[in-house]
Amino acid sequence: MEQTEVLIVGQGLAGTWLSWWLFKLGIPFKLIDVSDPNSASRRAAGVVNPVTGRRIVTSWMIEQLLPFASASYSEIGSFLENSFYQETSVIDFFPSVQMLQAFQKRHEEDPAWLFPGTDPGKYAEWFRYDLGWGTIRPCLLVFVEKLLMAWRNWLEKNDCLTGSVFDMSRLQKKENGIKYAGMGARYIIFCDGKCTAQNHYFEKLPFALNKGEGMLVEIKNLPGGLIFKKGMSLVPFRENVFWLGSSYEWSYTDDRPSQKFRDNAEFWLQHFLKMPYIILEQFASIRPATLERRPFVGFHPMHPHVGILNGMGTKGCSLAPYFAKQLADKINGSGDILPLADIVRFEKILGR
Ligand SMILES: Cc1cc2nc3c(=O)[nH]c(=O)nc-3n(C[C@H](O)[C@H](O)[C@H](O)COP(=O)(O)OP(=O)(O)OC[C@H]3O[C@@H](n4cnc5c(N)ncnc54)[C@H](O)[C@@H]3O)c2cc1C
User: Fold this and answer.
1) Which atom number of ligand 1 is nearest to the Cα of residue 49?
2) How far apart are CA 204 and CA 195, in angstroms?
3) Ligand 1 close to Cβ of residue 12 (< 6 A)
4) How far is Cα of residue 230 from the mean position of the Cα atoms in its chain?
5) Whose CA is closest to atom 50 on ligand 1?
6) Is the CB of 11 within 6 Å of ligand 1?
7) Cα-to-centroid distance, 350 and ligand 1 (Å)
8) Does the C-beta of 92 come closer than 6 Å to ligand 1?
């Protein structure tokens, strides 16, 4: 029987980062992933924004997460001889007086990430706006799909990846590990995004899956390298093409693109943008979000060979590298998982 140390299910951001850190630690692993073009990672804009929400609060742990993310994307980029991120700024056009005031208030309280715009008319050639703008920086723009594809190629070349659907009915627990389809492993780690919410080991965790819709839009001659935000965001995707999104729907009936989002996005483009545009593609995906907005990391308290790296919600680009490293260190016996992220906090629920 083929033997490995860690079997990983899913190669989104979570599975990519976990396998990277295991590789760096020299721990043998295998990955199973069915390539889903609408997985959360494949549809993500790739933005790491240090502030969030209507009140423009600083994102959880961003002081640690942002530098860790840039160092990690840079390191895997050097290894794969590619570039997977750039530093950038969000140009935040205030959609309401309340948002303008919130920005000013937060800037006075903590000027670390927010910079009021100095020249109100600077972007008037391209956009319609009445209430001015401010800059949020530094932000990161991660080229997620490029990273996933490059790492997948490496995994395939090194015989670490099976491109098929993981079938739970074939998983067997053994005394010192697991067995799956003729392969033995000490650990199995579920990094399969929204699907883990239906996995009988972890379905009791407080997942709060969330639908996000977006579009790819061709727009020529916008200033390069910046993210433009006015409620929704226009994010550079490739030359003359922007990712536009997104929605946050807590209750939804299906995971398909909707006419409602298309109408909202077209209304937004017609009222905000002064340039011609062509909608190239509309898409929808499900974010593996959690009720308390903290990731799910670690091992099942009743099944110590079964683990999870999930619940990255809207922030997979910054949370995945950091918490994958903690999980890899835990497997290596050289580190621990932050208690706020460790699933032992749900020991009672998982033990029922
Ligand atoms: C529209 C949208 C925009 C977003 N924008 C951003 C952003 O700008 N910045 C940010 O930080 N985050 C963003 N996110 C959130 C981010 O995408 C997620 O947090 C992150 O991608 C989750 O990664 P994951 O690896 O946990 O899950 P996923 O990306 O869902 O990966 C799971 C993988 O498991 C595979 N899989 C599932 N079931 C099986 C099975 N049975 N067998 C084999 N393989 C399986 C899937 O094919 C997939 O490859 C966005 C999300 C959406 C939906």
Assistant:
1) 9
2) 13
3) yes
4) 21
5) 44
6) yes
7) 23
8) no
Task: Tell me the CA–centroid distance for residue 17 and ligand 1, in Å.
Answer: 12
- Distance CA(213)–CA(255), nearest Å, equals 9
Beta bridge partners of 286: 211
C-beta pairs of 349-352 under 8 Å, 24+ apart in sequence: 349/204, 349/205, 349/206, 350/202, 350/204, 350/205, 350/300, 350/301, 350/302, 351/301, 351/302, 352/204
| Tokens matching residue 177 | 């590990």
Cβ proximity of 197 and 290 under 8 Å: no
Q: At residue 311, what are phi and psi to the nearest 5 degrees? A: 70, 30
Distance CA 245, CA 283 (A): 10
Q: Is the CB of 72 under 6 A from ligand 1?
A: no
214 close to 243: Cβ distance less than 8 angstroms: yes
Confidence band (pLDDT; 50, 70, 90) for 106? Answer: very high
Is 307 close to ligand 1, i.e. is its CB under 6 Å away? no
Beta bridge partners of 235: 243
44 lines ligand 1 (CB under 6 A): yes
Query: How many other β-carbons are positioned within 10 Å of the β-carbon of residue 341?
Result: 20
Which DSSP string do the residues of 261-329 spell out, in sequence order? Answer: HHHHHHHHHHHHB-S--EEEEEEEEEE--BTTS--EEEE-SS-TTEEEEE--TT-HHHHHHHHHHHHHH
Which residue's structure tokens are 């999980």? 327
pLDDT tens digits for 225-267? 999 999 999 999 999 999 999 999 999 999 999 999 999 999 9
Amino acid at 255: D
What local confidence, expressed as pLDDT, does residue 186 receive?
Answer: 98
Tokens at residue 112, please?
């670390």
User: Is the pTM for the entire model greater than 0.85?
Assistant: yes
Ligand 1 closest atom vs CA 245? 1
Are 198 and 208 contacting, i.e. CB atoms less than 8 angstroms apart? no
Q: Tell whether ligand 1 has an atom less than 6 A from the beta carbon of residue 245.
A: yes
DSSP structure class, residue 249:
B
Instruction: Give yes or no for residue 295 CB within 6 A of ligand 1.
Output: no
